[in-house]
Write a structure and sequence with these properties.
349 residues; 9 strands; seven-stranded mixed beta sheet; BirA Bifunctional Protein, domain 2; 11 helices; 2 domains
């Protein structure tokens, strides 16, 4: 068979092979067979050296035309196969948009955060500002500015997480108050603030203590602030959190940064003050510590304690949550168990 016949026959056979390829893989196999480095068109070109030179140009033109025809048909067939495949996938994977959607499971706020947000709104309503501060503190602000001498037990390595000789994880949010006292301009009015946040202590011996917990401290400084102002504020907080029927009492105590100092108890909400295992049969439950700001704390911040005075208080948000919601173990707050947190969804509002 001469080359002209081979080209003519290949034109028919190639067109038929391209048309009959049912998949992209088959189509690629046809392309290689017809136009690959060892394909039939290549073999014809290699055989041209054996024919009369006067016919080589004519055969070359025929081969080039046939190559162009095959290329065009292969492209058309490939597009058709891809379109068919897409249509099949759309048909097979078609979604019924009339079906109801799948519900998305939403999380809930952490119970301690719920309580913190509630108290922040309560204090903002009383004219307080919410102030945040660093969790890594210096000894100067964490202790010295708050009238804690070098030999105070709270400065012992067993009670505090030290980073180096001068820096530590804050053991209370009181340093935020010290920093704010330094900056406050009393010509613009009194200072009324709360400082919520995480604090750290080496204290995790039982189910009611943790090395990390949330605290909220409050501070009011102005002229003519009295213990009566403190008592009224604390009663309002206790009734807001634990219910309007709760009774409160103040007991003398000692804190280096307040003088005089008190601790506040609320009547037991389990026995209504009659005495039970929850309140250790006293009828009262301790909830926070407070007092009148020590003059040294004011003087350390550059404030004349003969003119200005104030009160401060500190409450543990975790402890408040334990008492308010009856949580048995403080460690439940930090296990991230969705089942535990779901119990407090209704408290978010």
């Amino acid at each position: 068979m001469d080359l002209f016949e081979r080209v003519k026959q290949l034109r028919k056979e190639g067109a038929k092979a391209i048309e009959s390829a049912a998949t992209e893989k088959k189509l690629d196999e046809v392309r290689v067979k017809l136009m690959g480095r060892k394909g039939e068109l290549t073999e014809i070109l290699h055989a041209m050296k054996e024919i009369d030179p006067q016919h080589r140009r004519e055969i070359g033109q025929e081969v080039n035309q046939l190559r162009d025809q095959f290329t065009e048909r292969l492209d058309v067939s490939k597009k058709a196969l891809v379109k068919k495949m897409v249509e099949q996938r759309l048909e097979n994977e078609r979604l019924d948009v009339t079906l109801p959607g799948r519900p998305v499971s939403l999380g809930t706020k952490h119970v301690v955060r719920i309580l913190q947000d509630d108290l922040e709104r309560f204090f903002i309503g009383m004219g307080y500002q919410v102030v945040q501060g660093p969790e890594i503190e210096s000894e100067h602000y964490n202790f010295e500015m708050l009238n804690l001498p070098k030999d105070h037990p709270a400065r012992d390595m067993q009670a505090t997480f030290y980073i180096d000789d001068d820096h530590l994880l804050r053991s209370q949010t009181s340093p935020v108050q010290a920093r704010t006292l330094e900056k406050h301009d009393f010509k613009k009015g009194p200072l009324k603030m709360i400082s919520p946040g995480k604090v750290y202590r080496r204290d995790d011996d039982d189910a009611t203590h943790s090395h990390q917990f949330a605290q909220m401290e409050g501070l009011v400084v102005d002229r003519h602030i009295t213990m009566g102002d403190l008592k009224g504020t604390l009663e309002s907080v206790a009734k807001h959190v634990f219910g309007q029927d709760r009774e409160t009492r103040l007991r003398p105590s000692y804190f280096p940064f307040t003088e005089p100092s008190v601790e506040m108890d609320v009547s037991c909400f389990n026995c209504d003050g009659k005495g039970c295992a929850v309140c250790k049969y006293t009828g009262w439950i301790e909830v926070l510590g407070a007092g009148m700001v020590h003059p040294n704390v004011l003087e350390n911040a550059g404030i004349d304690s003969n003119i200005y005075g104030g009160f401060a208080f500190g409450l543990g948000l975790d402890r408040f949550a334990i008492l308010k919601y009856g949580v048995g173990d403080i460690r439940d707050f930090y296990t991230n168990d969705v089942r535990f947190l779901e119990q407090f969804r209704q408290e978010e509002n």
